[in-house]
Amino acid sequence: MSSSFGGIPRSLERGGCHKITKKFPKDELYGVISQLRRASSSVPANIVEGFYRHSTKELINFLFNARGSTGEVIYFLLLSKDLGYIDQERYIKMREKCELLAMSINALINSLNKK
């Protein structure tokens, strides 16, 4: 599989959120760890699913879902920082990555809406 679909990288899942949760307390396995991993893997999964659909309208709907999951990731990163699981520097770096990804998704949605 390509490392991107429509120019959107799978960077949240590849080495980002999944990797940092390995250092979280084990009692968070079914809490923050699960939620953060689920949300971060949902972003590229929705993008890929959208590209395999039959219409631009369906693709756009899945891109909106991906953008929503990006917001979830940002929230769970903030919660992880507040709980002391990640430091401020890591939080800012990952939040910025999420914000750039959300902007890329928005740009793709806008370009598809113009067609």
UniProtKB/TrEMBL annotation:
<protein>
    <recommendedName>
        <fullName>Four helix bundle protein</fullName>
    </recommendedName>
</protein>
<dbReference type="InterPro" id="IPR012657">
    <property type="entry name" value="23S_rRNA-intervening_sequence"/>
</dbReference>
<dbReference type="Pfam" id="PF05635">
    <property type="entry name" value="23S_rRNA_IVP"/>
</dbReference>
<dbReference type="InterPro" id="IPR036583">
    <property type="entry name" value="23S_rRNA_IVS_sf"/>
</dbReference>
